[in-house]
Amino acid sequence: MREGDRGGRAALRGLRQDLSPGAGTPPLPPSLRAFPFLAWAAHAAVAGYALLVAGVAWHTLIEDFGLRNEVAGTLAVAQAAALPLALYWPMASWWLSLVTATLVAVTAGLPPGEPVWPTPSMLVHLSVLALVALRVRVRVSAEMWLITLLSGVAVRLAAHGSIEPGAVADMTVLSAAVLIAAGALRGRADALSRMARAERVSGEEQARRALLEERARIARELHDVVAHHMSVIAIQAEAAPYRVEHPPEALARSFAVIRAGALEALTELHRILGLLRNDTGGADPAPQPTLDDLEGLVAGVREAGLEVTLVTDTGGPVPPGVQLSAYRIVQEALSNVLRHAPGAAARVEIRHAARCLELRVANGPAAVSVPERAGSGHGVLGMRERAAMLGGELGAGPGPDGGYTVTARLPLGEGAAR
Q: For 64-164, where are the alpha helices, taking DSSP H only?
């Protein structure tokens, strides 16, 4: 029994929350509120409809039901006011429409056999139901329909002591149809919103996956550079004690520890590389490219039909990692020129500044029109990752002549300065 009481109280509490005048959200969707003109147009349309219905109801209550002018005007305006109110407080507007419609039915005193609800009141209440049902759950729509039906039955019983099915049939059937249609529209809108959200999440997931793949590829390429440095450390640590006659035992032990640490780091590097290459079939035996290989890269691009001018001014030392990133950025930029601007002339400039290596790859407009091609579209993303990895920066964008320019500044680091 106690469980039944708790269940009943929970049901009443849920009903009170569903039908509270402050419940519900405004029926205008966020996509419409994002465009102020459309939102104001919707408000103006509802306000115009409310004025029209108020005038018709006012006239009908006077002419057909013999109400006094001030009574008819008050009831007509009060119920019509529920329409614009529904755009801000849906459930409050429903209560206002229901109460005023009931007052109109009681005041009009319709004879037996006639519908409980006068036509103007029915039109307003159906419109309010449609607006409210666009933003409430199906359960709340069913509760509004049931209370509307019970209100009509109560009015008829209070006026005539009996109820004819035909007296409440119009409002019952029409309100059910309106609520079902509004629920269907809301379901479709929710489905479209979920699809748009899923597409947005899918796009973000693809971008994140492409970023991770690009970082893994950069790490695989840099492995050889790091492994070379660690090998040099191990060799130097092993050979250092033999360069000094009778080296102290503590010094020899220190060099042994350095060599062991370098070899252990090399082993861990190879393990990491194995994880990064577990889906590529093994390591790439070719050495990683440097700035000295740019001439070969440019020659290959020229053979593909692209006119390229290479200007280099690297008068100082450049770390291998910076050389690799610079080569890959130039390679990707020239590949983009081939894909998106065939026939355009390109210019590659590489300049050794005080503490950074400056790159600039610029091309003019395409000589022929190029149709849109489906591709990964992550070339600029990879170039940015290479620059960011070194603590540098990269800029890419269209030029005033219709071409495209890629610029990068790659810090050389303390090792290059030495």
A: 69-80, 82-85, 90-108, 119-133, 138-160
